[in-house]
Amino acid sequence: MSDDELNPLMATNPRHIAIIMDGNGRWAQKRFMPRAFGHQAGVKAVRKIVEYCALQKVEVLTLFAFSSENWRRPEDEVSMLMGLFLATLQTEINKLDRNNIRLRFIGDRSAFSESLQSKMAEGEAQTQGNDALTLVIAANYGGRWDMCQACQQILDKMATGGLPQQAITEELIAQHLSTTDLPEPDLYIRTGGEQRVSNFMLWQLAYTEMYFTPTLWPDFDEQSLEAAIVSFKSRQRRFGHTGEQILNKSVTL
Ligand code: IPE
Ligand code: IPE
Ligand code: MG
Fold this sequence. Notes:
Layout lengths: L2 H4 L9 E5 L3 H7 L4 H21 L4 E8 L7 H24 L3 E5 L7 H14 L6 E8 L1 H17 L10 H7 L10 E4 L18 E4 L9 H12 L9 H5 L6
Parallel strand pairs: 1-2, 1-5, 2-4, 3-4, 5-6
Helix pairs in contact: 2-3, 3-4, 4-5, 6-7
The protein binds 3-methylbut-3-enyl trihydrogen diphosphate (2 copies) and magnesium ion (MG).
The site of one 3-methylbut-3-enyl trihydrogen diphosphate (IPE) has 11 residues, from strand 2.
């Protein structure tokens, strides 16, 4: 008997989990160490969570690695993060590929160094045909940037006469976002205790279940993720319907 049959209130497993990995700096500071130490520990947590999601057959895992606002940090932290990003890609791409994981990036990559951009492109190309977990790394990503670039693409099509004004629908906008071919996130997790969205997937989070935990990202492990999934599965998603409609299964979601 499936979970659904056991308890009609119980949601299915999340297909897409999106995480704001926050708290690296505070994790290091608590240990009287430089913030860089926390970011390095954060990479270890990423490995664990990616492996666990692949094992659990999650379809898509999106990790917010660097926001469009993170350039505002001190220069030495930004360049440390860029170095860590490149070094991590250099060691991890082959491992991801061996594990049948497809790597994708969302965000404005034009601001990154040539070497980083080419490593990103290489990682995507090498893992393109993989069909276990899709790992999406949001780098120089902002929800507002995503909406702007979608508008630009749509306006270009209108200017060249390819698209009438009435064609602008929610579906059309979604098709031009960087997440176009991905399901919307079912579960959004933010570690580190802050309860905000920080310009993450503003459009895509419209009906996502939110889970906030004080656990700092380097301490977030398989059990922590399992707790978030258990919380997700105990919720009734209604998408505007009534609870009764959902219980009677009189609507298809
Ligand atoms: C998240 O951890 C990682 C990045 C934003 C790159 P922080 O660096 O924001 O850690 P805190 O919030 O300062 O503890
Ligand atoms: C959000 O964390 C971005 C990432 C985790 C990459 P921040 O630490 O930058 O968010 P704020 O500034 O506290 O809102
Ligand atoms: Mg932070």
